[in-house]
Design brief:
0% helix; four-stranded antiparallel beta sheet; mainly beta; single chain; globular
């Protein structure tokens, strides 16, 4: 069991930046980590994922070039730096941990074993 706690959400204006953090209550070095988001009335969608060693990252096309995922295994924390935010980025953002390594699978919510409670990000126009 890995308990994950997100923080850093809030209300910002379009064009602003925000950094989300996800802290694990114990070491998560063996896990791939991902960020997903869910807007009202929509399904949970993939945002970004990072391999256990931080070497490889993958992004949804909608955030590529604007968002950056990173991790600090010494601090058991994964980050999502969001820049040039748009109103359509408004959602609850969740971090998740997966024991899988395949990039194709890590795009899917079902690939993840543990989830945080989510943090709200609201972008006003």
């Amino acid at each position: 069991q890995v308990q994950l706690v997100e923080s850093g959400g809030g209300l910002v204006q379009a064009g602003d930046s925000l950094r989300l953090s996800c802290a694990a209550e114990r070491t998560f070095i063996s896990y791939s980590m991902g960020w997903f988001r869910q807007a009202p009335g929509k399904e949970r969608e993939f945002v970004a994922t990072i391999t256990w060693d931080g070497v490889n990252t993958y992004y949804a096309d909608s955030v590529k070039g604007r968002f950056t995922i990173s991790r600090d295994n010494a601090k058991n924390t994964v980050y999502l730096l969001m820049s040039s935010l748009k109103p359509e980025d408004t959602a609850i953002y969740y971090c998740a941990a997966s024991s899988l390594r395949s990039p194709d699978l890590l795009l899917r919510p079902y690939a993840y074993d543990f989830w945080g409670q989510g943090t709200q990000v609201t972008v006003s126009s």
